[in-house]
From TrEMBL, chain A:
Belongs to the binding-protein-dependent transport system permease family. The chain crosses the membrane at residues 12-35, 177-198, 205-227, 247-267, 288-313, 349-368. It is found in: Cell membrane. This is Maltose ABC transporter membrane protein/trehalose ABC transporter membrane protein/sucrose ABC transporter membrane protein. GO terms for cellular component: plasma membrane. Gene3D superfamilies: MetI-like (1.10.3720.10). PROSITE patterns: ABC_TM1. InterPro entries: MetI-like, MetI-like_sf. It comes from the Bacteria. GO terms for biological process: transmembrane transport. It is a multi-pass membrane protein. Keywords: Cell membrane, Membrane, Transmembrane, Transmembrane helix, Transport.
Automatic annotation (TrEMBL), chain B:
The keyword Membrane applies. The chain crosses the membrane at residues 6-33, 54-74, 112-133, 145-164, 201-223, 244-269, 303-325. This is Maltose ABC transporter membrane protein/trehalose ABC transporter membrane protein/sucrose ABC transporter membrane protein. It is a multi-pass membrane protein. It comes from Bauldia litoralis. SUPFAM superfamilies: MalF N-terminal region-like, MetI-like. It is found in: Cell membrane.
């Protein structure tokens, strides 16, 4: 309807602003997760992620090196060092020597200590303590300072979750589940879809109704009987009840109605004349399917594959029922759930783990969006 | 790595076995009932094989559907009349228990809330965004970004939103976005997901955030399918802007709106991950799907009660199921 009454694709200012606001609202949550996962964990715990995007001023407490490090520069004893471990571009603006007045002095000036000593803290964080008497005790002097920190990001959280929190192993487990569970159903569904679309046999309409009906059967109905079945099979044959083979088959079953429905709609829409002329040339249904229908159905196969992959990768329920909690079977969603329980307050771990888990589906989503949309439309608004 | 290799082998074996089955079954059928020669039996053979062949094509799919969906439906119904181990018949006592149980009743109540709010908001926002984005040149980019949460798992989305709802006691720096905004506006921070009744809505927002993109994509296609003539006619009659939208376009896409609404409804009934991750049913947020999961494993598992809750979810789905089947049959004619 472009071009009608001047409402083409130019819109007016209000529309632009409205959409912009909505987009920001929708993207903000994920963006916050990404920013947080890249922040230093100590900062993450004490300040909002939005502060990480700009230079921020914070009050910090540091400790000078212990008296053991002092050197004698007659006539005084000196302890020197730098408040910042790495050169991150932070800049000290004010400093103080007591908690009551942490911003007493400008950076670069010298403050007097009680016993005749002095403290100097420079903007770059380097400090110098002097004292006429040798420093005593085992701990260094406390230094209060206010500094401007530029935005700073690190991959440390990712290193941690990938190795010590088991996210790396779970990533491999998720792949192990998702790839076969995506590919195995396709051929099975395609043959059935062809039969339902173009072959004549009694009961076809009924069967189609059954498939459409099964499309909405809640997964919950299947869980308990299958759990029992798997346990029985495991006992009878002396194999473990929770295996990758088991979950591949389960996902194959649960994805089958959608696969058949999507592919059948698509295959039904292929031109019948091609198949008819092939049949006249002596091709059997098997030949027609393999040589004509299957190659022509690639867009629909791709659409289903994306659906199934996203669904299997993001699934928690099926994995919790059909796989065990051991680290060689715990998938990303399951691991994330476990971390939510055990590391509930450690947002650096949760955010980085969550981002690892959404990375693959989001990448699949953005690269193959066209197929996904086409599949959605075929599945929902046909006819 | 070894595991991935195993997965690859499984793909090859699985797909190979399927391919082999279809190929072998067809070849054998052709060998038993040859119809390509000119023998007098060819015609009869072709008839026989055309009766058998569909079932060869359908066989594996029917087997999988039967084992993983059809049989479990009947077995779940059966189990709902049995005790916790599934061995002793107990009649209706699981159902009697359910309707007297406070957490079951509160689950029903919460589920009803979810069923009203989530489809309504997702469809409403989806429609609005579809309408607006069709009007601007960067609409596709906007749509893509709003659609994106659909790729995120419910559990991942829960982490994202739990972070937004994060609560620190008053006086300390809020690191959750919502409480930071609330404090910025001069109000006291709240532990949002622990406030009974209202916390349900904070959980629902997560699903709305995920599903709006789905509604938007489908409704956008439907809006574009509205014939230009109807809109032109309305403009000539003096309709403008929102009038066009509400009186001309929406009535023409009612069918699609219903499809979107019911699809989200089904999803809402099945959703358990969000509740499990956010509250695990605490603070009066329990829903049927999570309650069912809970009973499935609680204290070694109560299969009878778990199955009963599953059957209740199933009953809620049946009207939509019938409507879907009717719609499909109508299209076939």
């Amino acid at each position: 309807m472009s071009g009608i009454a001047g409402q083409g694709r130019t819109g007016n200012g209000i529309v632009h602003i409205a959409v912009l606001v909505i987009v920001i609202l929708w993207v903000m949550p994920t963006f916050g997760l990404l920013v947080s996962s890249l922040r230093d964990k100590d900062l993450l715990a004490v300040s909002g992620w939005w502060t990480a995007l700009t230079t921020t001023e914070r009050n910090e407490v540091g400790r000078a090196n212990p008296p053991a490090d002092q050197v004698e520069e007659a006539p005084v004893y000196v302890i020197s060092g730098n408040l910042f471990e790495a050169d991150g571009g932070a800049e000290v603006t004010r400093f103080g020597i007591s908690i009551q007045d942490p911003e007493a002095f400008d950076a670069g000036t010298t403050a007097d200590l009680k016993d005749g000593g002095t403290v100097t803290i420079n903007p770059d964080g380097s400090y110098r303590l002097t004292s006429p008497e040798p420093f005593e005790g085992s701990r260094g002097q406390r230094l209060f300072y206010t500094a401007a920190f530029p935005p700073e990001f690190t991959l440390q959280n990712y290193e941690e979750v990938l190795s010590s929190e088991g996210i790396g192993q779970s990533f491999i487990n998720s792949l192990t589940v998702a790839v076969p569970a995506t590919i195995i159903p396709i051929l099975i569904a395609a043959f059935a879809a062809y039969a339902l679309a173009w072959m004549k046999f009694p009961g076809r309409a009924l069967l189609l109704s059954v498939v459409v009906g099964l499309l909405v059967v809640p997964l919950q109905m299947s869980l308990i009987p299958l759990l029992k079945l798997y346990n029985d099979v495991g006992e009878i044959f002396g194999v473990p009840a929770k295996t990758y083979v088991g979950i591949w088959l389960a996902h194959t079953g649960f994805g089958m109605p959608l696969a058949i429905y999507l592919l059948r709609n698509y295959i039904r829409g292929l031109p019948g004349e091609i198949m008819e002329s092939a049949r006249i040339d002596g091709a059997s249904d098997f030949d027609i399917f393999m040589r004509i229908v299957l190659p022509l159905s690639m867009p629909a196969l791709a659409a289903f594959a994306i659906f199934q992959f996203l669904w299997v990768w993001n699934d928690l329920l099926v994995a919790m029922v059909f796989l065990s909690n051991s680290s060689d079977q715990l998938v990303l969603t399951g691991r994330l759930r476990e971390l939510l329980g055990s590391r509930g307050g450690n947002w650096e771990i949760l955010t980085a783990s969550a981002f690892v888990s959404i990375l693959v589906p989001v990448a699949v989503f953005f690269s193959l969006q066209r197929f996904l949309v086409r599949g959605l439309l075929a599945g929902s608004v046909k006819g | 790595m070894q595991q991935l290799l195993g997965a690859l082998v499984a793909i090859v074996l699985g797909v190979g076995a399927c391919a082999l089955y279809y190929f072998a079954a067809n070849t054998i059928l052709d060998l038993i009932f040859p119809f390509r020669d000119a023998s007098p039996r060819a015609v009869r053979n072709q008839k026989i094989s055309s009766v058998i062949r569909p079932w060869l094509f359908l066989g594996p799919a029917l087997l999988v559907l039967g084992v993983y969906l059809v049989y479990p439906v009947f077995d779940s119904i059966r189990l709902s009349f049995y005790d916790r181990s599934g061995e002793e018949f107990v009649g209706l006592s699981n159902y009697v228990w359910a309707f007297g149980d406070t957490s079951f009743r509160s689950s029903i109540f919460n589920n009803l809330l979810w069923l009203i709010v989530v489809p309504a908001l997702s469809t409403g926002f989806g429609l609005l965004i579809a309408y607006l984005t069709d009007r601007i040149w960067w609409g596709n980019i906007a749509k893509s970004l709003i659609f994106m949460p659909m790729a995120i798992s419910f559990i991942g989305a829960s982490v994202i939103w739990k972070f937004i709802y994060d609560y620190r006691s008053e006086g300390s720096t809020q690191i959750g976005l919502l409480n930071a905004i609330v404090e910025g506006l001069g109000f006291a921070p709240e532990a949002w997901i622990t406030i009974p009744f209202w916390n349900n809505f904070f959980l629902m927002i997560i699903l709305v955030w995920i599903q709006t993109g789905f509604a938007m994509v489908i409704l956008s296609a439907a809006l574009r399918g509205v014939p230009d003539e109807t809109i032109e006619a309305a403009i000539i009659d003096g309709a403008r802007g929102w009038q066009l939208f509400f009186y001309i376009m929406i009535p023409q896409i009612w069918g699609t709106i219903a499809v979107v609404w019911t699809t989200i409804t089904i999803l809402v009934l099945k959703v358990f991950d969000i509740v499990l991750a956010m509250t695990n049913g605490q603070w009066d947020t329990q829903v049927l799907a999570n309650l069912m999961f809970d009973w499935m494993f609680r204290g070694g598992g109560d299969f009878g009660r778990g199955a009963t809750i599953a059957v209740v979810i199933m009953i809620a789905v049946i009207p939509i199921m019938i409507w879907n089947i009717r719609r499909m049959n109508a299209e076939e004619r």
